[in-house]
């Protein structure tokens, strides 16, 4: 049954000596579909660019709908709310009528936010009090001139022409969703942090190549065994010392003092048992899987040689990063323009519903801020024409949600395609290294460029097919997350259990599809078959060597983890000593004492070094996977005879006790 499930071994092909040159286009239908989606994606972007206005989210608006920070208000980048408490929909009827889309209070564009406390004093209500002696012109509506107005202080306050109180505030980002641009005056303060010097990141990338070659998994295992043995001896010694002690865990109870638990003999007994189990697992692993571990180590070393012969592969993640950056930027800009499509909508709002009779103002009457006259509402002196939201009428506006969904789906498909393109390109380059009989003499010229051109010319459809399958699974996961977030409060325990199981299953399915796609792209790069055939052949080949696959996967994961930990940890420690001022800078161009919070640049450098490490080690991981599949194919196709010589390295042949036979008359 397992043989039927894993398929038959590959047969010898005398014409095969590496990635096939004579190949044809694969998965043409999916290629055409992907091109049509890209054309539609560009059309959506053009429509969004024509109808959208990013100023609506990049700059705030005042009550009349004018932008702050540009145009006539270029010197007034902040929005000042007369009474921000009116924004609460729970306590303000008008705010509830507007569905929280706008605050029923006057909003002004101001140059600076208030820096002190001020409340309109009682003396301002005395007869003869002049408004200009109490109010500030910058916190009054532009149509009101305090020096020439005939209105009294009470009239100005009742009509909300000037703010009658304010407090120390600082610029901050206020509203959410549509009004992400609201750079409003809110309480709180900010402290500047100096820009992070990214000179570390430039040197980090060149540091990696020397790191991963120095890591030897076999030496790591050989060092771990005596370490665990020493730990077992130490635990036994401590346990023997405390053997006469009668203190138990019940006597100590729960405490944050860990040293108290070290005075209990059962603690050292537990440590000793755990170390013995781990030591036993390591010993059994080395005894029964010794050959497979040696094969994994040999393939990892061979991958190091492959990368050293093709150093251009180290920089290929930069190409993938640029393409991913283009996709993310296009998606973000398109989403921004789609979200700001539509003309602004203004409605009549009662700023002070308790003054006069404002029952006729429901927040549904539209208006024009240019021609609006408050005298049309004589019973409600606080009536104003205010900006509310953006027009959602018309065919284009009614389908904005559908266009946003299309934007997300096309974005995921493009992202997965770019990743697939990078994997297939690297696989083709590393496969050309393995199938070169005499290394490095038989390695093709510019193998990475040839593989990239070959992939774009013949296999766009296959890569798009694999990316589409992964995109569909990701969309289902997004829908499940959305449903779980929406109905979390209303779900019973049974529904939550089912939802959790569904999320877990689709997470596992996504991981499995990524694994299948990765190996399918390797087979596509080598043999040039379509996606389904390549995925089937790769899966069958791996199933016929399942134990080797598991061992290599775990060894590689541990090796890459050690590499990332060493690099990121080393850069993090260096950044800490640099930004904390413990490493002096001779030139004096950077002074650590001026940093208000030096942990922020340290975290930035650590994150940057991790991203660089992730990009580099992804190349190394792809090399290991490619050479491993080639190695398995080599074992099935060849037997070491003169007609069927092995392409693997001498180290691998030595581990497997195999060798290539020499032609008659030729000496070893």
Automatic annotation (TrEMBL):
Q: Quick one: where is this thing mainly located?
A: membrane
* Family annotation (InterPro entries): Choline_transptr-like
Q: Provide the reaction this enzyme catalyses.
A: choline(out) + n H(+)(in) = choline(in) + n H(+)(out); thiamine diphosphate(out) = thiamine diphosphate(in)
Coiled coil residues, start to end? none
Q: Does the keyword Transmembrane apply?
A: yes
Question: Where does the record say this protein resides?
Answer: Apical cell membrane; Cell membrane; Membrane
Stated membrane topology is: Multi-pass membrane protein
Q: Which UniProt keywords apply?
A: Antiport, Cell membrane, Glycoprotein, Membrane, Transmembrane, Transmembrane helix, Transport
Cellular component (GO) terms are: apical plasma membrane
Q: Name one Pfam family in it.
A: Choline_transpo
Question: What GO biological process terms are annotated to this protein in UniProt?
Answer: choline transport
Membrane-crossing residues? 28-51, 193-215, 268-289, 309-333, 410-437, 458-480, 520-543, 555-578, 598-620
Entry GO MF terms: antiporter activity; thiamine pyrophosphate transmembrane transporter activity
Function of the molecule: Choline transporter.
Family, as annotated:
Belongs to the CTL (choline transporter-like) family.
Q: What is this protein called?
A: Choline transporter-like protein
